[in-house]
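ESCALATION

Customer reports they have been waiting on this structure for their group meeting. Please prioritize. Original submission:
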Amino acid sequence: MNQIIRNLATFLVMTAILVSVASAGGYQINEQNARAMGFAGAFVAQASDASAVYFNPAGLAFQKGWKVLGGTTLIIPSTKFTGPSPSTNNTSMESQIFYPSNLYVSYGMRDGLTFGLGIFTPYGLGSEWPADWAGRRLSVKTDLKTFYINPSVGYKIGDTFSIGVGISYIIGDVSLKFRVPTYSSLTPPTPAAEDGTASLEANGTGFGFNIGLMFKPTERLSLGLSYRSMTELEFSGDATFADMQALTTFFPGGSGTTKLPLPSNLVGGIAYDVTHDITLEADFQYVGWSKYNELNVDLEEGPAFPFTGRPVQSDMTSKKNWEDAFLIRIGGEYRLDRLALRLGYLLDTTPQPDKSVEPMLPDADRNELTLGLGYQFSDNLSVDVAYQLILFKDRTVAPSVNVFPGTYQSNANLFGINIGYQF
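Update from on-call: job pushed to the front of the queue and completed.
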């Protein structure tokens, strides 16, 4: 009985883990413009369109007139889990498609002052497993959406140097579903044949800022530096339990609150025009995941359980102990009149230690390849498309360090498109 109650209390732990999805390396979405996506995201030193609001607001200062840019990225992930026993072998995640979108508007004045506004989704995605799989008591379905509203301003100091700043209002929305064991009777204790279902719906808001610098010592060479602050997102929501049978009284659900630190990002890069038609860029991105040490969740207390005298639904602290991570990006573009061809490579390291790997977030180090092309239909209208292949390294966690051991094999295909108009 005590073991079952401890398993039921994983609701509180999973509430904490749920919020961790928002800050996981596997769920940080850097694909915020198909043009930059073709460069494997190496764009901080160019930032030469309205998406500079996201990549480096200092790039706005070198732009003139009105620019409007909008698009989306289709993300198609795939994950297979293989456990150490026949009952946990070869389970595939359900097929899903995510489509984080973006919209940017900027206006550059003649005196080097430029204003911009961006709406984008830098954290998102989710996961869905079969309802009856071996890990159903850890995760069945997770869905996360965030929206950044980011007004920015860039100013050019002289002919070669610029600075940019922005602030962000952040809206987050998340839902979680997983199965929990229950009892059909407490007298005598009789495990139920079917699990109950726990669900959580939560939303939160927060503020952040970003700042950027750009230096162009020659016509061919450009250096960029961008920083986006850590943001503490305040979540509140409601938990519900269904089909709990004899344990319904002891898991009434209710409201809960928590605060989540979204990590800081520091990106530096160098772009060089090898010829009039060829541009290369290399970036280094450092992500401050180590701020995510633990998560405290405040929940309404349930009634005392008769066998322990204590409520099994109460506040919870979950240790995370994540580590800082980095990304290396290399990309290039070859221009043929109105057509531009792009190619890139990205190394993305995971912040997640073995003990923290779980079905909601089966993250791992990744190698990523990108292809892209752009076409300038006129002086005003352009279209960019890109493809990105993400190859996760196989991630095996042992029973000595993880409560749900096994091997995760993952990959993802991404397709991006943006349409730009300037006047």
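Sent to customer with the following note: The first strand starts at residue 65 and ends at 82.
Escalation resolved.
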